[in-house]
Amino acid sequence: MLRPLVVPLLLCLAAVAQERPKVLFLSHSAGFVHPVVKRPTSETLALAEERLRDLGKGKYAVTPSQDAASLTPDMLADYGAVVFMTTGEVPLPQATRDALFRRLRAGGGLVGIHCATDTYYKVSTWADMIGGVFAGHPWTQRVRLRVEQPAHSIAAPFAKDPEIDEEIYQFKNFRRAPLDVVLSLDLASVDASKGQRTDGDYALAWTRAWGAGRVFYTALGHGPSAWNDPRFLAHLENGIDWALDPRAKPPRGLPSGAVAAVPGNGPRRTWELRSLHFDAEIHLDYVKPPPKADGKPRRYGRLRLGPKTTILLADDEDGPTGSGSHAAIDGVRAPDEAVSIRGRASETIDIAWNARRVRATGIVKSPARISVWHNGIPVHRNVEVDDASTTPTLELDDDVPAPRAFWGIGRASSQ
Predict the structure, then answer these.
(1) What pTM value is reported for the model?
(2) Which pairing describes strands 213-218 and 364-366: parallel, antiparallel, or unpaired?
């Protein structure tokens, strides 16, 4: 009597399987070959490939590849996320690489494991997107992780037991803005003098927005001990889940050491960030107002960094038109490109403020400079501004919702 149900059930299961997202795992080694991605034979998967395929069972289909040169733009179109554990100048064809970058920015997911930051030294977009560039591994030993966001699913596997045997990377071209760091190195667990970062910031795992897409990177995963560690596997699995979810955004809770904005006292509708000293990182998550009835673009707010430095908020999703457009430095410089996301209500702006340096004689050694990321994309890089210090103030029109998040972190120095 159950036989008539078999065919519909099989069709249902087939439909579910067909709807599962696809994940491409690229472990092409154009430089150093990590043992965990070395295939024992041409017919056998590497340890990392086996583990990643096991993680996807029942949720997503994993396609392992170690032949970057064979990948085409059409092949990439099927994948919801691409996982890189690669080294060197990976021979991904130019058209395929460009298609990958476009797809990620339009809403795809990217996961980088360990040596993904030891990849594409000649491709600036990759360094911008992944968040840092490999600059050595000072420590290969048992270390203790700082779980910066214990409630984050990606960090949670290490919340109760943060010690791990690992090869620890340090990075250049790294700064926390606009990343959302979830794990970092506890320097008390190592000989800190071996590291090269003057700020002592050894972040190890983070998420970030890249336009409408999502990037997750973890520096963990060097050797077999990690790939046989349930905590690392859960960390990686949760990161892939996050990268696959088009609704996912970096949680961006108030980080340790951050100062939250307070309402201003003036006649205008404002929020102020006080007590930021010297260098600073500033994060704004804001909601765009609905279009005006007449459909004409307008400026609806501004983020004042100093008396002479203002970032504009404006209705112009169709592209920058000059120094008065959205994310422009008012009257000074247009953004490098337009990265507003059509149809999305909330967007982000992240700013790195490098303070003016003054010699003991009072002579200015170097002016203040800012870098700005709009929805995770760099739109101003190290732009000189004529302000001595920053007290960021957000001004919004009356019909614009209050910011979802507005905070800053003062830094004693920058790198």
Answers:
(1) 0.90
(2) unpaired
